[in-house]
Amino acid sequence: MFVPLVPYHAGGGAASFAPTDVHATEYEWALAQYFGFGVLPCWRGPRLYDSPATQRLVAKWVSFYKTHRAHVESKARPTWPAAIRGSRGRLAKNGRRLGLPWA
Predict the structure, then answer these.
(1) In sequence order, which residues have a C-beta less than 8 Å from that of residue 83 and are 6 or more positions away?
(2) What burial class does residue 82 get, using C-beta atoms within 10 Å of its C-beta: 0-12 exposed, 13-18 middle, 19+ buried?
(3) Which ranges in 1-103 belong to alpha helices (H)?
(4) In sequence order, what are the residues at sequence separation of 6 or more whose Cβ sits closer than 8 angstroms to the Cβ of residue 8?
(5) Residue 99 forms beta bridges with which residues?
(6) What is the pLDDT of residues 80-89, one digit of tens each?
(7) Is 100 left (phi over 0), alpha (psi -120 to 50) or beta?
(8) Burial of 33 by CB count in 10 Å (0-12 exposed, 13-18 middle, 19+ buried)?
(9) For residue 71, with 0-12 CB atoms within 10 Å meaning exposed, 13-18 middle and 19 or more buried, which class applies?
């Protein structure tokens, strides 16, 4: 997966998060999804943040990942039946304990 921090050939400016301080809400959503599900994508661009506000967002989700790494990287159970479409999530299982619900 790619996180387009700067415009590139396929989608131009509409398909990138640059400048990240202007697209902070969308950028935080992407960070939450990737770090929350333990998917570390390829970052397309020269830097992860371009302002103190987005630096705090990146630090927040990196801290989340480091804190919950054992659960995020463990096996997970889906929280929805296979035939139902709509709200989806997962419940990470670490050893005998279940925890870290994520939707």
Answers:
(1) none
(2) exposed
(3) 24-36, 52-67, 69-72
(4) 15, 16, 44
(5) 92
(6) 565 556 555 6
(7) left
(8) middle
(9) buried
